[in-house]
Amino acid sequence: MPSTTAATVLAPLAGVLSLVLVGSLFRKQRRNASLPPGPPGLPVIGNVLDMPSVTEWLTFSEWGSKWGGLSSVTLLGQPIVIVNSAATMEQLDTRGSVFSSRPRLPMAGELAGYDQTLVLLPYGPRFRVYRKHFAKLIGTQGVVRQFIPLVEAETHRFLKRLLLKPGGDSISAHVRKLTGAIILRITYGIEVQEEEDPFVTLIEKANDNFNAATVPGAFLVDVFPAMLYIPEFLAPFKRTAKVWAQATKAMVEAPYLYVRSQMATGTAPVSFVSKLLESEKKLSEEEVRDIRYTASSLYGGGADTTASSLYAFFLAMVLFPDVQRKARAELDSVIGGTRLPVYSDHETLPYVAAVVTELLRWHSVAPLGVPHAATEDSLIDGYLIPKGSIIIANLWNMLNDPETYPSPSTFDPERHLTNPPQRDPRQICFGFGRRVCPGQELAEVSLFMCVATTLATFDIERVGPLPVHENTQGTISHPKPFDCMVKPRSERAVALISGEV
Predict the structure, then answer these.
(1) Which residues 6+ apart lie within 8 Å of 478 measured at CB?
(2) Is the dihedral of CA 91, 93, 95, 98 positive or negative?
(3) What is the DSSP letter of 96?
(4) Where, by residue number, does the polypeptide cross the bilayer (predicted)?
């Protein structure tokens, strides 16, 4: 009996002692640890002069070659840690609560208004509310399944636009309208206009502003928040931000108010917003606000990324015609030109599905993702990542790692079929931690439908000199503009697109 009592008393003490010892060991390791290696800086200003102003991901990749999976710089005392390897990013992923917040970015945040949307919202209670809404709407394959008929219908409308305007700048406009149309219908029940649609225009303006506002180092106010107190007549960035803030507000308010007006007349289609507002009388002002900003986060964040991937698809087909031929052969063998592909064909079209996977790898939509922030001191690979550090994940480098993806500049769907790489690129390109892209399932459905139906009905041909695959600047990066032309594969394809069959 005495021994049992002693064990009962000592067991919790042993647990406490182990926690104390672990904490003591961590503090000792932290004292002995240093920031990850990186280019030597100068007194006071640190590495301000080392920071690239364009194609930052390429410079960071060079640092990765020199210093490994983790490197760091300091800008006027602010630590910035660059993650260049997927293995290192996976370590951060296991500590989701520590690395899932956002740094303070005054230009895009307080000034342009994006700090209230999911993309820049700090990790906390409101963030979890937004994510909960996202999860219920598009967070799993099961809930996304309800939107497949909608995606198929909007993709068929896309084919008709492609048939009417098959080349030049029209390709980019078509894919933007397609992705905008899908998001608008799901979020607000809005069906886009065939000519220039005001809501799609709102998305594009606000997203262009966000991309410009979040370029690392583009605005000194992000390094010196005290500049927020400079009078506007001495701060040109404030005048720019005022214009951007108006665009952000329009993106948030205009479609929301449109749904409210439809609900008042009893004509509102079922949508994310209309369903949540059905019980508005029971909702607090804060809950209504969260619905409004969750909707704008879906609306603003989902369209541009998918449009970037689809534009890159047309470029890939121009640069790698053999891939186009193989995909068409598979489509013909399964469908035989008797109908348009539908999403349920996904399982019987493995090569076409692999084209989508390779597309996500080959063209990095967000080469550096959106910066994360460390909310407490951590040790990764023996290096100290101090609380408050800005974390930049060089997704471009991970997706172009030749050890994982041989000949990474080559668009090769076969790599995902015969001997799949150790890491599925989807595990990288959709981010990490508790900020992994909540729209991943919807994005993949949309990409597959557009890729499959386009290849089933059109030939994508080169026009002029062979284009080059280069990313535009910005947080969301598109391929630089290129020329191509699409032509219907046959009269039957035209009939299928036109709905005559």
Answers:
(1) 172, 307, 308, 311, 312, 471, 472
(2) positive
(3) T
(4) 6-26
